[in-house]
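#onboarding

Welcome to the new folks! Below is a worked example of what a typical request in this channel looks like: someone posts a single protein sequence, and someone else replies with the predicted structure as tokens. Don't worry about understanding the tokens yet, we'll cover that in week two.

Example request:
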Amino acid sequence: MIFLKTLFVKNAKLSVEEIIRKKTFISFFFFFILIGVGIESWKWLWVQPLDHGIQGGIQQPLRTILNANEKIFNKTLSSTHLAKTYPVTEAARKVRVNGNVGMGNDFDPAKWKLQVVKTNGDTLFFTLDDIKKLPKTEIIFNFKCIEGWNQITWWGGVKFADFIKYYHLENEANLRYVGMSTPDEEYYVGIDMPSAIHPQTLLCYEMNRQPLPMNQGYPLRLIIPVKYGIKSIKRIGTIFFSNDRPADYWFERGYDYYSGL
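Example response:
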């Protein structure tokens, strides 16, 4: 360090070339120091235990940071915290698909019914016509995927909050979370209740004013603009409610549970 200090001593007799050489040396010295710190930090992080032993999880220090972020951003959500909406002219006609887990080819649409498990253990069954009885809501927003792409898309369906009210599920909505899964249970999400009953969250059955395509979750999917697309589960088979966090597919694979925007 004594040597480094001498490099900063003002010397009016130094030429421009000498000053450049000394500054270059200092820059490279600290650059390699930072590289070394980064390598050692990565080696330390790599050997840390995984979070809670869940499938594929991530190192506990990273999970601690994600949980801290969730606590912060969870407090920013309210019914007035709205995703930006767009005119129909900006909506994509060719809509990208964000994943295909739970979209198996063995699905029979004719046999589909939405199952809603109440807190008393009763299970309610709904057809698509039962859901379409409610007022239709449309939204055009910028769908954002964790893969790094985004796209302005146009969806139509029923507000989840309206579904709760119409079918007298207010007691269930007083719990902290809602869980959803595909009919084959291959894909599943857990959503905090404030986000689930947010005024822009839809049980969606249309895309671009047409029935959902099979690869977009026909007959019913979730659209939740205040979160990344991993929470907008396609082909919903079952809905249930809980005060404990339901299992979540991507949380188990290293992403944060909240996944908010």
